[in-house]
Amino acid sequence: MSNNDSIFQIRGLKTQFFTSKGIVPAVDGVDITVKKGEAVGLVGESGCGKSMTAMSTMQLLQYPGRVVAGEILLDGENLLEKTKKEMDEIRGNRITMIFQEPMTSLNPVYTIGKQVSEAILIHENVSKEEAKQRTIDIFRKVGIPEPEKRYNVFPHQLSGGLRQRVMIGMAMVCNPQLMIADEPTTALDVTIEAQILYLMKQLQKEQGTAVVMITHNLGVVAESCDYVYVMYAGKIMEEAPVRELFRDPKHPYTFGLMNSIPKMTEVKEHLYTIKGLVPNLLHLPQGCRFCPRCEKAMKVCTMYEPDLYETEDGHKVRCFLYNKEVMNSGK
Ligand code: SF4
């Protein structure tokens, strides 16, 4: 991917947890690039490191987690060099985040109107009246019916779908450069999920916001992203434009993920499953970390860790099957 017009870049990010049992490499040398106005998917099973990548970006890692290497660049500025005060300014203003469960982010004792107005007042020099009007406007924009009335309701008085709309409104009200959405529709039913994804896409295009969509759901990626990174056990395994990835998944892990989705056009007695379990990050296998689960594993895979190799049609794949030297040597 071209980095010229990128607004957000993660370079060589390593995040580790220093536990009594050893060091857990939750994010292990991740590179991600997002262009202005682009939506990028970060997809993988639970525990693959996608949420830790987001928490590292927001600098919201909990003890004993720590970023030990890399750069996180927002419009060229390395967020890892910012002071706590500077990060407080950036969070909620230039970068915003939406979580799976809005109730974890919304304060139950304040009205939704007050919470969104506060977000504006903290980051911008506007009057209370103006903040209130902007809150009502964004509520209208994200499809909250009767926004003037709803300004004064508490989060528990809204449905899950409406609460997530409030969160999207709060995330977008200050025109952020980047919005990170961590499983934003997982707790919603499919009809509401489609509405929320459509809404996010609309706002993203209107405001030119870059989006990182973290999900385990390839359907969400297909629906809402331009480019996708597939993550496994702390590393990026494959990256490609979304259409390309769906047309021709190359990494055996991506292939397995795609195959395990039911297809309308096929009748199958059993759905495909990727055999085995995600490895314990404290005891990663030698060589390729997907090797114990891979149906195409070769001898070389048990000895060395593959790099990301670029294929002719623009994928980057961390697999020896795409390394000509290895394949020609018959290892
Ligand atoms: Fe499978 Fe080997 Fe490729 Fe790893 S490097 S995904 S084990 S073929």
Give your account of this protein's structure.
The chain is of the alpha/beta class. The protein has 11 helices and 12 strands. The chain has helices at residues 50-58, 84-90, 112-123, 128-141, 147-150, 160-172, 190-207, 218-224, 242-247, 252-259, 324-329, and strands spanning 6-19, 22-35, 39-43, 65-74, 77-78, 95-98, 178-182, 210-215, 227-232, 235-241, 309-310, 316-317. An 8-stranded mixed β-sheet has the order 6-7-8-3-9-10-12-11, sandwiched between helices. A hairpin with a 2-residue loop joins strand 1 (6-19) and strand 2. The two termini are 30 Å apart. The relative contact order is 0.13. It binds iron/sulfur cluster. Residues 252, 288, 290-291, 294, 296-298, 301, 306, 319-321 line the site of iron/sulfur cluster.
Largest sheet: 8 strands, mixed
First-to-last CA distance: 30 Å
Number of helices: 11
Uncertain runs: none
Q: How large is the radius of gyration? A: 21 Å
Q: What structural class results from the helix and strand content?
A: alpha/beta
SS strand fraction: 15-25%
What ligands does this structure carry?
iron/sulfur cluster
Helices and strands, in order, run as EEEHEEHEHHHHEHEHEEHHEEH
